[in-house]
Amino acid sequence: MSGPAQSGLAPDELQGRPGSAAASADITSLYQDVIIDHARKPRNFRELKGASHRVEAVNPLCGDQLTLYLQFADGAITDIAFEGNGCAISQASASLMTMAMKGLQRDEALALFARVHTMLTIEAQGDAPPAEVGKLVVLSGVGRYPTRVKCATLAWQALRSALTDSTPEQSAPEDARRPGPDGVRQP
Length: 187
Fold this sequence. Notes:
The protein is α+β, with helices and mostly antiparallel strands. The chain has helices at about 5, 25-40, 90-100, 105-120, 145-165, and strands at about 55-60, 65-75, 75-85, 185.
C-alpha cells in the first residue's frame, strides 16, 4: 500500500497554491505520485567516479545530507549524480534535478536553478504557472510548506555551488570541510 503517510509526506503536503493550476485534486495527486516515485527510486543515485566537481550539503533542520557529483565536458554537464540520506522531498528533488541538468551548459543550468529556486521560494501570483521549469513543476507545491523548502532546495543549492565554483574537486580531509551558512560545503 502506498500513500503520503508511508512516504513521510503529510496528506496535504504537495497541494498546489490556492488558485494555481496545481490546486486541482487530479494534478495534486499526479504531482504526489511523481515525487513519491522519485523518493522511493531516485534516479542517478550513485557515486560518480571521476567527477570534476563534488559538493556536500547538509540541512541541519531535518538531517538531510547529500553529496552531489558533476562531470563537465566542453562547458556542459555530461553526467550528474548524488548520494545521501534525507526525507522524501529532498531525495525526490535531487533525483528530478539530476534528470533535468544532464546535457545543459553551465549558463543554462544556472538559469534553470534560478527559475526553480524562485518557484520554490516566492509565492505565485494569480493563476500563472511557474516560469519554464518543465516537469520540475511537480515541486511547486512545496512552497506552501516553509519547513520543506530547505529540503527541496538542498540539492539545488549544492548544484549552484558547483556551477559557480571554478575549482574542480580537491582532496581535502573530511574534517576540513565545513558547511557554509546555506548548509553547503565543498572539498
